[in-house]
Structure formats: structure tokens, C-alpha cells
Amino acid sequence: MPYLAAVGPSDGLARAGEESLAGEESVRGAVRSERRKEILRQRREELGLSQEDVAARLRISVRAYGNWERGLVKEWTDRKLLALAEALEMSERQSFWLFRVMVDRDPPPTWRAAEENRLPEDPAQRDYLCDYAALMEALPYPSFLVDHRWDVALTNSAFDKLFQSVRPHPTALPDDNFLRFVLFHPDAAAVLEDHEPAWCVPLLAQFATALAGSPEDEGLRSIRQEVARDPFMEAAYRYGVPHWLTTHGAEAAEQDGAVRTVRHPDPRAGLVRCRMVAESSRMLDAMGLTRMTLILSAPQGTPAGPIHPGAGFPGHAGPRLRAVPSLGD
User: Looking at residue 130, what is its pLDDT?
Assistant: First the structure.
């Protein structure tokens, strides 16, 4: 008996239509798979990079990246795609295209906060920040501007150098939101020594104060939700911070003047003493910004003295403070 006669004319047409659609879907899937492979290979070759080069940037094995480029990936997560966009030096448009080709959607909203969107609308304030950027760039110490959410508005080259080894992350890069970086980035402890007691707990205490003062702030509430999703951070927020404040006092959470330790990118320096200095100005205050500067001193175990360009670390005297005579002298 013929197949169409067995299933009936309408059923046969429906089945044939389904098979046709399935065939079209299979072809589209094959084309998409090839595009996924090509977009990575072509961009890598445009940059003149080998698979070994890209694998080194991603901090994965060459074999693993080879699988990425061949499309042998179990799941394209946001983190993988954001890391790829960073490693392949993709522009904003190219990054959107990467997400569209790989997972048929846009990048996560947290990624879209371009630096331009953070600049104030007031032309006078924009000009001020441009000049302030030149001032910060002249500093030999890591320095950055943050708002009350710890969103980073501006960094200098010394800051970028200190955190140069940090891998891409969808929401917790040091030049994006410093609080998120300290709390959630897996590389934070590699740069910030005594990461949990010296950095996480004081910043969580400051965050709790900021949230209590602005409970409706969407940015702060978003961070609170991320803390709640991390069992360790949630326990630290609910129980560790109150106990720590009771033991050390509220002033211990202040960043200005706090002395901590960082791991300097120069291997000769190793662990370096770091004093945090918080400053503002009339114009910065109007924009809700504060400048944080990390004054790096000599490595632990050597005579103290500020580090500045061209200085050898051990035993360097650094700049001298002059006694200012009083008017009566």
C-alpha cells in the first residue's frame, strides 16, 4: 500500500511539510555552525594571532581553544563569549554580532554600560573630567574615580597596570565596578592580599551603609541580589559584617587612610604596602564622584618609602616632606 494512502492525504501533506521544515532547519543549523567557526578564525587571523596566542589570552589550553574554534563547545556561556570578545579585541558592534551568531541574542545588559554613557551630560563637567584624567595620568600610583555604587568612571595607567592580569568577567571587572570586582571576581585574591578580611569585609560594611541610606537605588539593589545568590557572601553580609563592626568599630570600614597589601605586577616587588587615600573636590562632589588612590610603598620587609616612576624598590628614599615654617618664624 502506498505510504500516502496509508496515512491519508492530509496527514501525508502534513508529514511532508514537517520533513521539509526539518530539512530547512537542518540546513540553517549547518550554516550557523559554519558561521560560528568562521567568525572566530577570521577575527583571529585579522589580528595576526595564532591559536596559541588566543589560548594564552584566555588562559586556557591550546587544545581547548581549538575546540572552541571548531564549535566543539557544550554551552556558549556569557562568560565564555565576553572573554572571547576581549581576547579577540572586538568592538562593541563585533561583540554584539558574536553573541547574535553564537547564541542568537544580545550581550547581557551589564556589559552595555559603555564609558561614554557614564560621562555627565553637562559640557562643563565633561571638560573637567577630561582635564582631571590628565591629572590622574600624571600620578605614579593606581588611581580611579568611583560613585556611591563603586561604579568606576575613570582610571589611570597605573591602575590598569596593577590589574593587568585580571581575566575578563561579565560584571566584575576592576575598571567597571570595583565593589563587584572585590566580591565576585575569581582573580581578585591574586592581586588583593588578605582578600577576605582586608578587602571584602570592609567593602561589604560600606556597601551595607550605602544600601541602608539609598534602599531604592537600583544599582545597589542589583549588587545586593548578587550577594544573596552567593552563599558565602550572604553569610558574610548577614553575620560576618555585624560581628566585624562590633569588634573593630565602624571607623574600620572607612577606606580613606586604610593600609592594606597588594601584589605588584613587577615580580621584583611582590607584596607591596598600600595606603588608600580618598579625595574629592567641588566639581567631583557635584558629580557624585570620589577619587581613590592606592599609595604603593616599598615591598614588605624593606624600608618604607613611596614607589614612583624609575625608582628601585628596596631602600629608595622617595620624596621628602618639608617642614613648613610658621608665620611667627
Answer: 81
